[in-house]
Amino acid sequence: MTISCGVLPVLEPEDQEHAYEMGDYEGARARWCPGCGDHSILTAVQRLLASEQLPPERTMFVSGIGCSSRFPHYLNTYGFHGIHGRALPIATGIKLTRPDLDIFVVMGDGDCTSIGAGHWIHALRYNLDIVVMLLDNGIYGLTKNQTSPTTPQGHPSNTQPHGSWLPSLNPLTTALGVTNASFVAQTAEWIPSHLYATLRAARRHRGLSFVRILQRCPVYSSAVYMKAVQDPSRIALLAHDDGVVVPELEKVYKNHVAHNPHDLEAARRVAESTEHVNLGVLFADPSRPRYEDLRRVPPRTADERIHLLDAELDRYAV
Amino acid sequence: MPSDPRVQQALTALDRPIAEFRALMEGALRQADAFLEQQMADEPARVKRAAAALGVFGASHIDATRFAALHVGTRTATEPSLAALRRAVDILRQMADRGDNLFLAEVTSGAKIGAVVESALAMIGWAFGAIIVTDLVRGGRYVEADHASMLDPLQFGGWNRSERRAAPPLVVRVAGASVRATDLASFADGHVKLVLVVSGDCAPAPLARLITPGTFVVQTTDGSGLDRVALFDGPAFAALMPAGAATFVHDPALGRESWQRLTVSFIPDAPKKAVGAMSTWQQLEELKQLADLARTPFAVPNAGGNAAPAMGASDAADRIASWLLTQSGLGGTA
Amino acid sequence: MPTLTEPIAAPAGRATGVPPTILTKREHTVEIVSDSGEGAQRCGQIFGAVSAKMGNGVWTVEIIPAEIQPPPRIPEGASGYRVRVGAGPVTNWGDATNLALAFNEQVLLARHRLNALADDAILLVEDKWATSEDADIRAAWEAAMVELSTRHYRIIPVPMEAECLLLVDNPRKGKNMFALGMLARVYDRDCDRIKEQIAFTFRKKSEAVYNTNVQLFERGYEWAETNVDVRIHVPLQKIDEKLVVMNGNEAIALGAIASGMDMCAMYPITPATSVSHLLSEVFEKFGGIVHQAEDEIAAAGVAIGSSYSGKVAFTVTSGPGLALKTEFLGLAVMTETPLVLVDVQRGGPSTGLPTKVEQSDLLAALYASPGDAPHIVIAPATIEECFHVMITARRLAEAFRTVVMVLTDANLATGVTPFKRPTPELHWQAEPVDLSAVPVGTKAFQWDPQTGLSRRIVPGQANGMHTLTTLSHDEGSKVAYSSGVHQRSSAARSRKLAVLQSLLTPPPVYGDATGDLLVVGWGSTKGAIEEAVDRMRAEGLQVSSVHLRFLSPMEPGLKPMFTQFKKVVTVELNYSDEIGDPYVTEENRRLGQLAWLLRASTLVDVDCWTRVPGEPLRPGSIVDAIKDRMPTRGAK
Predict the structure, then answer these.
(1) Any chain C CB within 8 A of the CB of B55?
(2) With an 8 Å Cβ cutoff, is B227 touching chain A?
(3) Domains of chain C
(4) Whether residue A14 has pLDDT greater than 60
(5) What per-residue confidence (pLDDT) applies to C636?
(6) Is residue B155 scored above 80 in pLDDT?
(7) CA B330 centroid distance within chain
(8) How close does chain A come to B131, measured CA to CA in Å?
(9) What pLDDT score was predicted for residue A92?
C-alpha cells in the first residue's frame, strides 16, 4: 500500500503464487576480492530472501559507495546504488512513499559511521521499517586502504601509516544511544548460520533493524578480526528466546551470555564490554513509533484535491 | 447506515485504508481514461490535453503540439480489449459512486454473517478484476479468452496474494445474536480488516475465538484501539461492542507469546443467559480462552525500566486468573 | 531656546473648516516602520489587502530588520511594510516611498539613510520622543530632525501614544491600529472592509480584542480627519475577475499542490522556509507530507527516493542549501530521477544576506554540480508565475526524467500582490505512475537515439528489476566504464535539453522589435524593468526589453532578436565589475550571470548593468543606468 494516490499498489493479474528459490535473487556475478566477507553476506541475504519468499520486484536494496555498496548489483531485485554516505536519505524517501516495499540498506563503515554518520543517527531515530546492514571491515577498501572510524587504534593504513591515532568508534554504543532506536544486533560473516538468523530477526522486526556485520577484508584489514575468527572462545553468543538462537553453534561457541534484548541498560553494557566479541540481538523494542506510521495520511483523489484546493484558494481571495 | 454514529466512528478510524483503496480505483480510472483518450482522440484533442497538462505557465512557453508528439508511440489496442477496458471503467465508476457504502455491509435478521461478508468482498473482488484489466489492456497483454472473466464479481476464495494484501477494510453492522466469529476466520489473510459494529445482546468476548498469532484482534466498547486496526500490517478483526462486553487488544507485533501480545482491559461478570445460539457455557468458554491466552506463564523478572510493554498485560492476566478461580463453580454447568 | 521640532510641527494641524488638499496620484507608495514587534507589518498587510479588494493595483514588501531581536530605537531595527498602490496593476515595488508612518524617528532615519524616501515624502512620526524624560532620547530626536532636514520631507508629528492611552493601558499593542486608522483616512479606504480584515486578523482572539482594535482604528481615523491636511486619491478600477492575494512562497506551495505533488522534503532556510510553513499546515489534507530532514543533503535525498519510487517530489532551499544539494542534484541527473528543486535566492556568497533579494545563484543553478549534469532551470517572473510554474516543472521533470530547478528570489518570496485566481484543473495532476509488469528484458534506460528520452521504471513493476547506479552505466543500468558508453549516455542526458529547447516558443519583445537598446532580464525584475522601459519609451528613447523564463535550455530565437538592436544589456540583481573600476578591463571584467550565458549562446557582445543592493531594483535606477548606456545615435 502507499501513502498517497500517486502510486498504485501492484496487483498481479494471474495468481503468481510460485515459490522463489535462491537463484531467483541472483544478479550479476559478484566481483569482490576472493576471500572478501561480502560474498558470505550476499549468500546469507539470498537465503533470507528465499526463506522469506520476498517477491524480487517488491524488494529493494539501497547502498552508498564503497566495496559493500556494490551489493545491489549482485541481486535480482530493485537496487539503488547511490552516493557515498547517502543511502539512508534515499531509503527514507522510498519507504515513506512505498511502505509496501521491503527495503534493505547496505553500507560500509566509512559510508555509515563517517561521511553518512549524520543520516545514520537520524535514521535510527526515524525508525522506519527497514533493515540496515553495516558491513564493517574497519577500513576503506574501494579507495585502497585508508583509516575509517572503526579501524582499531594502532592499525596502520595509507592515511595513518603509523597506526590509527584514535580509539575506534563503537557503532553499537552509538546506535544504542540514539533515542527511538528499536533494534540493534551484531553478527559476523564468518559464522553464516548466525548471520542468516540475525538477518532474519532483523527483517522480521518492525522498525529500523540495525545490524553490524563484522566483515573481513583479506586485503587491507585481515588482522582486525583474525583472532576472533581463529579462536571461538573470543566470541560470546547472546542467548534469549527473543534474540537469535542457533543450536548448531552451541558446540563450537561455548560462551553464552543470557541477555534480554528488551533491556536497554543491559544492551548498553553488552555493547561496551570488550571481554568478548558479543554476537546476537542486543536490543529490540517493536513498540517504538515508526516514522512511516506517524506520517501516513489518507490519499486524496484528483477530484478531491481540486475541491480542497479551491477552498484553499478562497482563503486568499480578494 | 452511515448515519449510525458508531458506524461513522468505525469508518473514521479506517479513513486511511479506505482512502487508499479509493485512490487505487481512481488511479486506475485516470490511467484508463488517459489511455482511452489517446486511443480515440484526434490530434487537436491530444494537443489540447498536452497543453492542459503543461499548465498555464508551460502552455505559454512550450509548443503543445510538439510536446504532445513527443509522447505518442502508445500502442494501439484491439477493439475487444478496448471494449473490456470500457467495461472495466464502468465497473470502477459504479464502485466509486457507491462511496462509503462499498465498505459497509449489514447483517439483516436471518442472514449469516459469513455470507454477508463474502458477498461484500465479492464486490471488492470485482473492482480488483477491473483494475487488473485496465493494466492488461494498457500493457497490450489483455487476452479475451483468459481475462474476460475478471470483469465478474470475485469471491474472496479466489483472491490472489496481492489482492488479499490490497483489500480495503469492511465495516459490518450486526446484531449481537448474529455474531458467529468462527464464520469469519477464513477471511484472516493479507490485509483484510473486518470491523463489526455490534448492537443488542451479545456474548461478552466473541472475537476471542479469532485470536491467532498473526491476527490483530480488538474488542472495544468506546472505539479505542480501532485506529490501530488501520495501522496493522496484516489481517485484523475488530468489534465495536455494546457496553458491558469484554475489551481487549491482541497485537501480534508485541511478542512471540500470547501473553505478550494480548492486553485485556475489562472482563465482565459471568454470562447469565444464552445469546442467539450461544449458550452461557460457550460464552464462558470464550472468556476462559481469553484468560488462558493472557496468563503470564512465569513471574516476569524485573527487567529495569525498559521491559517489553506487553508485560503490562500480566496484571490483567492475574486479575482474570483470580476471577476464574472465583467463577470455577460455573465451569461445565451451562 | 526653541527646539528644532517647532518649525515643522506648525503645519501639521489644519484649522477647522479648511478642507484638506486632495492629491490625485496614478500610484503612491506608503510604508509603516517601527521597532520589530510593534505590529507595523500587520498594519501594512491589512492596508494592502483592503487596497487590493477596493480595486487598486498593489505590491507589498516586508521591511525586515537586520537583526533578529534588535534593541528598540535603533536604525538597524527598522521593521515594517511597504505598500505601493496604483490606479492600474502594480508589478514591482517602485522607486521611493511617498508617505511614511514611523513609530519612532530612528527607524525613519534608517529609511532615509537607505534612500528609501522620496525627496518630497510626507512623514508621519510619533512625537512622544521629542519630550521624553530621557535626555539621550530627546537629543537623538533632535539630531535625527537635523539629519532629516537635509531633504524636502514634510514631517507631521503625531501624538500616537498619547491618543492610544486614552483607550488602552498598553499602547505598544494597538498603536498599529491607530496608524491604520490614519492611513485609512488619508487614502480614503473602505472602513467596513478594514473592519472585516481586522476581524479576520484577530479571528483566533476574543471579541474584546477585536473591539479594542476597532476603537483604536477609529480613533486614528478621526485624528487624521481633524489633524492631517492632505488626502491621497489613487483612482480605483472595477475588479471584473476573481483575484487572489498572496506572496511568492505561498504561490509556490499552492502550485505544488495543484500539480499533484505530495512530498516536500526540506530543511529550514531563509527565505525559502515559509513554503513549508504553509504546506505543513494544509498538505496532509491533500494526502501530502512535508518531511523536515536532518539536513539539506538529506532533504534532497528523501525527495529523490520518493520520486524514484513513483512520485515527483520536490525540495525547497536557498543559496547555502543549494550548495549542499548539488551532490544529489548530480545523482538525480545521472539516474534520470525526476525532481523539482526550488531555490529561493538570497544574497550571497555563503551566508550572505539571508533575508535580502539577489539573483546570484544562476550560474550555480546551471553548473554547480560537478561533471556534466544537464538539467532544466526555469525562473518565474511574477508571483502569479510562481504558482503556475510548479505545474510545468513537475510535468517536465517527469516527461524528461530529470531535475527541474525553479529559481525564485526573496523579492518574489515576500512580495505580495493580487493576481487572477487560478482555476485548478484535473490535468495539472499527472496520472499515477504505471506499476504494471513490463515485458521481460525491458531496460532501465531505453534511450531513444533521437531524443535521449526513456521510459521510467519504478520498483514494484514485475520484470523491471535493475540496479540504478550513479556510476557511468549503459542502457541496462549496468556499470560501464568504456568511453563509448559514457559518450552515448552523456549524449542521451544532454539531448533532452536540446529537445526541450526545440519545443520552446521564442520570448516576445516588450516594446518594438528593433531599436537602440534591448534590456534582457530574468526572474523577479520583470516588473521594474518593464516599468523603466515604459518611462524611457515615453521619453522617446528606443528601448525595448525581453524577459527570459527558461535559462536551461536557453530560450530560442535570441540571436536574431539581439541583432535588431544596437546594444543589448542585461539588468540583474547580482554582482558585476564596472569598466572604470580599479584594475577592471574589458578582458578581466566579470559580468552579470545572465550576460555570461547570453554571450556564450549568442556570440553577441552583451553588456550588463547589475547591482547587489539587498533590495529589489527600482525602475528609476534602471532608467538612469540604461540612459547611461544608450548607444550614440547612428552608431551600430
Answers:
(1) yes
(2) no
(3) 6-233 (3.40.920.10), 244-428 (3.40.50.970), 509-629 (3.40.50.920)
(4) no
(5) 46
(6) yes
(7) 37
(8) 8
(9) 98
For C244, the enclosing helix (H) or strand (E) is strand C243-247
Residue A213: closest CA among A150, A160, A158: A150
Point out the residues of chain C with pLDDT beneath 70: 1-17, 633-636
pLDDT at C14: 54
Q: Residue C24's CB: how many other CB atoms inside 10 A?
A: 11
Q: What are A133's strand-pairing partners? A: A106, A211
**Chain length of chain A:** 318
Q: What is the DSSP string of C157-184?
A: EE-HHHHHHTT-S-TTTTHHHHHHHHHH
**Contact indicator for A318, B37 with CB cutoff of 8 Å:** no
What is the chain B residue with the closest CA to A294?
B231
Task: Count Cβ atoms below 10 Å from residue C166 Cβ, excluding itself.
Answer: 10
Q: Are strands C79-86 and C27-34 parallel, antiparallel or unpaired?
A: antiparallel
* Side-chain half-sphere CA neighbours of A303 within 13 A: 9
**Residues of chain A contacting B19 with CB distance shorter than 8 Å:** 298-300
φ, ψ (nearest 5 deg) of residue C191: -65, -35
Rounded to whole angstroms, the Cα distance separating C393 from C377 reads 9
Helix (H) / strand (E) containing C155: strand C154-158
Asked if C388's CB is within 8 angstroms of B62's CB, the reply is: no
Q: Which pLDDT value is given to residue C1?
A: 40
User: B15-40 and B79-97 helices cross at what angle (nearest 10)?
Assistant: 150
pLDDT at position B254 over 80: yes
Across residues B208-226, what is the average pLDDT? 95
Q: Which amino acid is at C564?
A: Q
User: Binning pLDDT at 50, 70 and 90, where does residue B311 land?
Assistant: very low
Phi and psi torsions of C20, nearest 5°: -70, 155
Tell me the torsion sign for CA atoms A233, A236, A239, A242: negative
Helix (H) or strand (E) holding C414: helix C410-414
In 3D space, the residue among B234, B254, B243, B333 whose CA is nearest the CA of residue B294 turns out to be B254
Classify the C-alpha dihedral C369-C374-C375-C378 as positive or negative. Answer: positive
Q: Is the pLDDT of residue A61 over 90?
A: yes
How large is the average pLDDT for residues B306-332? 47
SS3 C263: strand
DSSP code of residue A99: T
Q: Residue with C-alpha cell 531563509?
A: C270
Q: How many residues in chain C? A: 636
How near does any CA of chain C get to the CA of A316, in Å? 5
The pLDDT value recorded for residue B303 is 41
Q: Sort C620 into a burial class: Cβ within 10 Å, 0-12 / 13-18 / 19+.
A: middle
How many Cβ atoms are within 10 Å of A152's Cβ, its own excluded? 16
Chain A interface includes C298 (CB < 8 A): yes
Nearest alpha-carbon partner for C493 in C554, C597, C403? C403
Question: How far apart (Å, rounded) are the C-alpha atoms in residues C467 and C476?
Answer: 9
Question: Does the beta-carbon distance from A1 to B191 stay under 8 Å?
Answer: yes
pLDDT of residue B312: 39
List chains adjacent to chain B, taking adjacency as at least 3 C-beta pairs closer than 8 Å: A, C
Q: Are C397 and C571 in contact (CB under 8 A)?
A: no
Residue B71 lies in a domain: no
Average pLDDT, chain A: 93
Contact yes or no for C505 and B71 at CB 8 A: no
pTM: 0.92
**Which residues on neighbouring strands pair with residue C60, listed in sequence order?**
C83, C416
Q: Which domains does chain A have, with CATH numbers?
A: 22-290 (3.40.50.970)
- Dist CA B320 CA B296 (whole Å): 11
Contact in structure between C308 and A80 (CB atoms under 8 Å): yes
Host domain of residue B329: 202-298+308-334
What is the count of structural domains for chain B?
1
Of A139, A140, A241, A246, nearest to A187 (Cα)? A246
B19: contact with A, CB 8 A cutoff: yes
